[in-house]
Amino acid sequence: MATMSTTARLPAGLFIRRASGGDVRNLAAVSSSLLPAFGTAVDDAYPPLKKYLIAPYDRRYRWWQLFLVVLVVYSAWAAPFELAFPKVNTGPLLIFDLIVDFFFAIDIVVTFFVAYLDKDTYLLVEDHMKIAHRYVFKMWFPMDVASTIPFQFFYRLFTGSHKGGTAFGFLNLLRLWRLRRISDLFSRLEKDIRFSYFWTRCSKLICVTLFCVHMGGCVNYWIAVNSPVAEETWIGSIVNDFKERSIWMGYVYSMYWSMVTMTTTGYGDIHAVNTTEKAFTVVYMLFNVGLYSYIIGNMTNLIVQAAKRTLLMRDAINEVSRFGSKNRLPEKLREQMMAHLQLKYKTEELQQEGILADLPKAIRSSIAQHLFQKTLDASYLLRDLPEDIIIQLVSKMNVEFYPPKVDIILQNEIPTDFYILVSGALDLLINKNGTEKVLKTLGATEVAGEIGVIFNIPQPFTVRSRRLSQVIKISHAHFTQIVLSNISDRRNIVRNFLQFLRDLEPEVLDEIPFIKELLADMNDQYMDVAENFTNSEAQDSSIKGQEYNEGQIHGDKRIRVIIHGHHPDESKGRSKGKLVFLPETIDELLKLAETKFGVSARKVLMGNGSQVQALNVLREKDKVYLC
Question: What letter would DSSP give residue 89?
Answer without folding.
Answer: G
